[in-house]
Every structure is written in structure tokens, then in C-alpha cells.
Write a structure and sequence with these properties.
Length: 137
């Protein structure tokens, strides 16, 4: 089943033809600064994501870049090492089948943020949460 998503204005759309990983919440400094809070991201094999429209890429570190719509500014993707492309979960058209599986970089979380959902937490990155292909939908 193909999953679809888009930015706020619709100038950038995408299709995902492979299973999506459950959502991981990232509390790192860069995600907080770029989004204004935390990032909730799923992911899929990079080759299974077809982007329709012009994505602007910002190199946020030596190993990763962030993709956003140049028209409305919606953050869509995080592209780092590995085979998967992270997809901001809120940009998917249908999130009804997604569930969350954990939090990463909780050592960097905002002081006002209390995590009370009982999901696994990692102070930094956690490959069992982020890079393991654990398809959900």
C-alpha cells in the first residue's frame, strides 16, 4: 500500500511504497531549534520514497540534511546515514495506523517537557529505535 504526504501548501508531495517504521520522538537540540519543539518521525527505505515537487535541503551537520518546502517552510524529511529517510510523521496524509515506539536524545529535551507515555527513552541516539527497519504500515 502506498502512503502519501505533503507540505502545508501542497507544493511538495511524496509517496512511500515501502512499510513505515513506527514514530520516534527526537528531543535533540537541532530538532528543537528547527521545529520549535520535538520532531515526531517515521522512516522508510530511501529508495521507496518518491518526492514530487522541489524540496530545499539544509545541511544541518556533517552527516545529515533536512528537507523542507521552499514555499511554506514545512519540514518534511531528515536524511542521514543509513538506508532510511526519516519522514516527519505529521506530514503524512493518513497517520491512523502509526504508533510511537520511543524517544531519543532525551538528555537534550526542553525543561518544560515531561515524558509520561511509558515508551522507551534514550539519552542520545539509539540504533534499535532509529535505524532498525521495523515496519508498521
Amino acid at each position: 500500500m502506498v502512503k502519501t504526504g505533503s507540505c502545508l501548501c501542497g507544493a511538495v508531495r511524496y509517496e512511500v511504497s515501502a512499510p513505515l517504521r513506527p514514530v520516534v520522538y527526537c528531543h535533540c537540540y537541532q530538532c528543537r531549534k528547527s521545529s520549535g519543539h520535538i520532531v515526531a518521525a517515521s522512516s522508510a527505505l530511501r529508495d521507496a520514497v518518491r518526492i514530487i515537487g522541489e524540496v530545499q535541503w539544509y545541511r544541518s551537520s556533517e552527516s545529515a540534511r533536512r528537507g523542507f518546502c521552499p514555499t511554506c517552510g514545512s519540514q518534511l524529511f531528515w536524511d542521514g546515514p543509513g538506508k532510511n529517510l526519516s519522514i516527519h510523521a505529521g506530514t503524512l496524509d493518513d497517520t491512523s495506523e502509526l504508533t510511537a515506539m520511543g524517544h531519543i536524545f532525551v538528555a537534550d529535551k526542553a525543561g518544560y517537557m515531561d515524558i509520561c507515555d511509558g515508551l522507551p527513552q534514550a539519552d542520545q541516539d539509539d540504533e534499535t529505535l532509529t535505524t532498525m527497519v521495523r515496519p508498521q504500515i
